[in-house]
Amino acid sequence: MTALAWFVPAVIAWALAVRFFWKAGAWLPYFLLGAAGGAVLAVVAARELLPGELAIRVATAHAVHAVSWLLGIRTELFDDRAGELLVIGVPHHQEWTRLSIGIECSGLLELAALMGLVVFYPALPKGRRLLVLLAALGLTFIANVVRMLVIVGAVAYGGQDWLDIAHVVFGRAVFFGLAIGIYWFAITRPTLRVVYARLREG
User: What is the mean pLDDT of residues 110-115?
Assistant: First the structure.
């Protein structure tokens, strides 16, 4: 209830400020405030008011678990409701590693940022914006599952000593590369198309 007490006034103030810049045609502050504020409020809502983060964590754990078995890596869902996995070492089956999918590995931050950027991107028509948003969110979820699979594979085949480097280096590098492609699809490519069209008109 405490979070709701300050969340509602914050949303109202943010919405009024975004509407003001939109009415004024001040597109840069409209986009910056809308995208950044929308992302922050979405994260807060998903963590404090709704079970959004938990749902993403559980969905990620289930997806990683299913694909791991297809790849021949044995995993178990440690807690079906908490987004936690047990990875059983492949070369040494006696080694079990418990992985907890927290806010960093859930993809919530990236999903919220992408949502804010696409929703408040003024150059895209609303209908196309919705299609791009749905596709980009789906691709981001898949990219995060791939990141987790890299970590799971490293731990399964290399042992627990590989956990830190797989999480900090390998997983992030893979996700960063995939995220660049997703942002190109959702933001950069539409921007270049708009700029190109305006240059042709000029």
Answer: 92
Yes or no: say if 15 and 88 are a contact pair by the CB < 8 Å rule.
Answer: no
In the chain, the N- to C-terminal Cα span, in Å, equals 54
What are the domain boundaries of the chain?
1-50, 51-201
CA atoms within 13 A on the CB side of 77: 16
Q: Quick one: which of 117, 113, 179 has its CA closest to 146?
A: 179
User: Exposed/middle/buried for 25, CB within 10 Å: 0-12, 13-18, 19+?
Assistant: exposed
What is the maximal distance between C-alpha atoms in the chain?
68
Residue 73 in this model has a pLDDT that exceeds 80: yes
- For residue 177, count other CB atoms closer than 10 A to its CB: 11
Question: Which residue shows structure tokens 């270049």?
Answer: 192
pLDDT tens per residue, range 26-50: 988 999 999 999 999 999 999 888 8
Bin 107: left if φ > 0, else alpha if -120 < ψ < 50, else beta.
left
> What's the CA gap between 36 and 116, in Å, rounded?
6
pLDDT at 94: 72
Model-wide pTM > 0.85? yes
Please give the radius of gyration of the chain, using alpha carbons only, rounded to the nearest integer.
20
